[in-house]
Amino acid sequence: MKRALYLAVLFISLISCQAQQKEGTELINPTEFAQKIEIEKGQIIDVRTPKEYKSGCIDGAVNIHLYDKDFGERIDKLDKNETVYVYCKAGGRSAEAVEIMQEKGFKHIVELDGGMDAWNEAAKPVKK
């Protein structure tokens, strides 16, 4: 009986984790992120503050600060049919940005798991 209960809880947990990641979005580690931006065409968006962005960013990234009042307007100017790569410092703001982009109808969003913190830990290149 305990085993059946354990399996049921495990199954429900797996389903709920998969449900959190909506169709058309990917949450990937720095190595996969680096490979994708190198191979696949897309728009790279850094949602950190301008000060954070200037301290070092991923090459090719455009800074669209999540908490700027014109964030929605600037996001609307992006191609919703082209892949959008999004990141922040640690993952919280990029997750918010992903939700906003999903609501606005973006088809494919790739989020950097762990943000720039994880990118730097993985010793990936940073543009200064």
List keywords for this structure.
globular, about 130 residues, 5 strands, Oxidized Rhodanese, domain 1, alpha/beta
Write up this protein.
The protein has about 130 residues and is of the alpha/beta class. It has one domain: Oxidized Rhodanese, domain 1. It is about 45% helix and about 15% strand. It has a five-stranded parallel β-sheet. The longest helix has 19 residues, at about 1-20. Residues about 5-20 have low confidence and may be disordered. InterPro entries: GlpE_sulfurtransferase, Rhodanese-like_dom, Rhodanese-like_dom_sf. Keywords: Signal. It comes from Flavobacterium alkalisoli. This is Rhodanese-like domain-containing protein.
Summarize the structure.
Helices cover 46% and strands 14% of the residues. With 128 residues, it is an alpha/beta fold.
